[in-house]
Amino acid sequence: MANIKNLKKDINYVLGDIIEAVYLWEMATAGNPTEKSNALIEEAIETFDKLIVKVNEKNVADKKAHFKKINKELEESANQLVAKINVL
To answer: What does pTM read for this prediction?
Structure first.
């Protein structure tokens, strides 16, 4: 199932890029982690864990719809995290 593999890669790359953006913000501004930046990183990691658990669910009636829902949730979560980075 190449789609599952690609979905896992997408989750990893998108959330990894968001974490990297937080680290770049830290280096460009304070030089050190702040409470807000650490909270964003933790939120990205929690989102990653939650989505991977959903991808690995075995008892799913309609797999295609299930994976589309996960992909949409990834997009929404990523947009929310990016918005929070922009507020920093």
So the answer is: 0.87
